[in-house]
Amino acid sequence: MAIIGKNIQEAIKFLEANEVIGLPTETVYGLAGNAFSTEAVTKIFEVKNRPTFDPLIVHTSSIERISDFVREIPVKAQLLAEKFMPGPLTLLLPKKENISDLVTSGLETVAVRIPNHPLALELLRNLDFPLAAPSANPFGYISPTSAQHVDNQLGMKIKYILNGGECAVGIESSIIGFNGDEIVVYRKGGLAIEDIESVVGKVQIQEYSSSNPQAPGMLKSHYAPRTKLIILNSEPEYRPFRIHNSKTAFLGFKDFQPNVPRENQLILSPTGDFREAAKNLFAYMRALDARGFDIIYAEFLPEMDLGRAINDRIRRAATQE
Ligand code: TXA
Ligand code: MG
Questions:
Q1: Given the DSSP bridges, would you call strands 131-132 and 30-34 parallel, antiparallel or unpaired?
Q2: Which residue's CA is the nearest one to ligand 1's atom 17?
Q3: Rounded CA gap, 167 and 178, in Å?
Q4: What is the distance in A from the centroid of ligand 2 to the CA of 144?
């Protein structure tokens, strides 16, 4: 198992030796290494068992430092950066040569993010290189929202996890690219589309495609528990009266299901708060997944605000391809 601690100096020591560590952020935990080091970036792909066609996000501590590895920042990207960075926003920007093709999977753009987490920011400020970091889960599984989640799955492969407590946002960053004048959301995430549009106007939403996963988190099956997950409100044949069974679980938004044993149910936000629901989503999926149920039923949230990003995660968790 890895050492779980809060020692920034210790984290720096590992990173400067081209090791990878668990990194807390406000969205989910990352698996971080020196973005300028081929050795460290190679380790990230190995530890995560991630295919090299899936590029990594590069994390830094300030808008000024983005220019260390990005050629230019379009006006609308700058507006978004000033408003939402640090925060759950990732921008796709033209890369400089110091970012290797390994990081971007050969793409000309690099994904850039400033995490809004005090420990992560302090660490980044004390490094003279940015950190490449995917979510710290084995490829395809649910993202980690605590140091313990990281240790459970990757602890035998890494030496250190910086413990920043539970992630406040709980789902990954929203990923945005710029296509001339067009703004494209490639992954719905912790920053609501409504907030993005309030700054830059109407955006396009790129829906996922399993045949062309060139874009962010776009593989159809992702964030998936091992237990079969079925979405209740899109599968009429599985109405509640048929699911009364000690081996079934329910992951709900606000309300319990009358016909599922109470102890088999987790409710994301009894008050119907999207932020609370996002924060709990992955931890609750993991908790239910660990209990050996035959089926986990889940329901969609209203398709608005962070409900859209949460529904996207639930949809992909349910896809068994
Ligand atoms: O909240 C987050 O974004 C977390 C924390 C750790 O920062 N990171 C995260 O990384 O979710 P990851 O690797 O699990 O997901 C990043 C997504 C991937 O689906 C990848 O395909 C996409 O970003 N991506 C990275 N660089 C890209 C690029 N240049 N163009 C298009 N998509 C890119
Ligand atoms: Mg991920």
A1: antiparallel
A2: 216
A3: 28
A4: 9
Expressed in angstroms and rounded, the spacing between residue 246 Cα and the centre of ligand 2 is 32
Residues 170, 240, single domain; the answer is no
Any atom of ligand 1 within 6 Å of the Cβ of 251: no
Residues 108, 253 within the same domain:
no
Cα Rg for the chain, rounded, in angstroms?
Answer: 19
In a domain, 214, yes or no: no
Ligand 1 and 90: CB distance under 6 A: yes
Q: Which two tokens stand for residue 94?
A: 């033209």
Q: Are residues 73 and 176 in the same domain?
A: yes
34 and 93 housed in the same domain: yes
Q: Which atom of ligand 1 is the closest one to the Cα of 136?
A: 6
Q: Do 82 and 163 sit in the same domain of this protein?
A: yes
Query: pTM of the full predicted structure?
Result: 0.94
Using alpha carbons only, give the angle 57, 50, 210 rounded to the nearest 5 degrees.
85
The string of pLDDT tens digits covering residues 278-297 is 999 999 999 999 999 999 99
Residue 161 structural domain: 3-205
Q: Using the Cα atoms of residue 7, residue 9, residue 11 and residue 14 in order, give the sign of their dihedral.
A: negative
Q: Give the closest residue (by CA) to ligand 1 atom 30.
A: 215
In a shared domain, residues 193 and 276: no
Rounded mean pLDDT for each run of 10 residues along the chain, 321 residues in total: 97 98 98 98 96 96 98 97 98 97 96 98 98 95 97 97 98 96 95 98 81 52 83 64 75 92 96 98 97 93 97 88 48
CATH number, residue 271? 3.40.50.11030
